[in-house]
Amino acid sequence: MDGQHYMERYIQEVVRRLPKGQRVEIALELQEMIQEMLSADGEEATVESVLLKLGPPKELAKKYRDDRRYLVSPEYFDNYLWVLRIVLLCVGLSVVFSAVVNFFLDPKQAKEAAMELLYLPSGLLAAFGAVTLLFVILERLHVKFEPSQSSPWNPSQLPPLLQKKAVISRSDTVVGLVFIVLFCMLLTFAPQVFSLYLFSDSKELTMIPVFDMEHWNVILPLILASMMIGLVDEVVKLVTGRYCGAVLAVNAVTNLCQVMLSFVVLKMIPFWNPEFFSWLRKKCDIPDLLPYITEEAFSNLFLGLIVFGTALELGTTAYKSLRYGKN
């Protein structure tokens, strides 16, 4: 393997552990340093021997970071800050949106709708704590399970340069993050948004909730747990930045947990509002469809879609991880 390839792989492993704003500058600095060391060591010098002198990429990255004790280290801080901004923005917008919706749905309850804005500071604080805790746990787990250096370091141990198809784009994760946070906030602060809206002849609004609100105190925690598991999957993809065995393992575990929680919610507890289905059956003009307009039929349909969607996602992740993410 030529020296240029070793050098590129080494620089990649160093700079990926540094804050984003420093990566280009330090990559150029490292390239220049290696070239100077090659010139200084004479004709017998090779890129491999120079890299051996520089030491493992992780140790060299620590010197550039001037490592101290951090709650969230510089290696993770850019991604942490990026996720935190998205989550805080989504939480803030969701609380304000739910207050506005509740006001327009029932202007007589304007005071109660305004009171929901008081939840904004506590919601933002909870989001800040949850994101910070998630990154702290992920970082500690990464350090704990990272392979130890049992033998002298050698440049041949460097992972290969990333293929373009192995990279997980940030735009792929932002959609998942935004959906998860907004959906959780709406279910928490304004579940009545998910309703059938009917206007009488006198233009009086009647709402028929889609969900069984009598059991909402049981349903909501299970849905939030499923969404938080999905959030972990998205954050792992963001932090890792590429398809690999770790991403595949986390995706498999989170998908399995989400399917199990979906089964519990849809099949083991009352989830749908019976009045909603009574109205649908009353308005249905196709007799052959009547047997399918039931709570059980809709639960089976949604569960099937969830299983299909998770299987498709897991299959895609497995394909990209095994084909493009091999070390």
UniProtKB/TrEMBL annotation:
The chain crosses the membrane at residues 82-105, 117-138, 174-198, 218-236, 248-272, 297-319. The keyword Membrane applies. Pfam families: HAAS. Keywords: Membrane, Transmembrane, Transmembrane helix. This is Uncharacterized protein. It comes from Massiliimalia timonensis. The lineage of its organism: Bacteria, Bacillati, Bacillota, Clostridia, Eubacteriales.
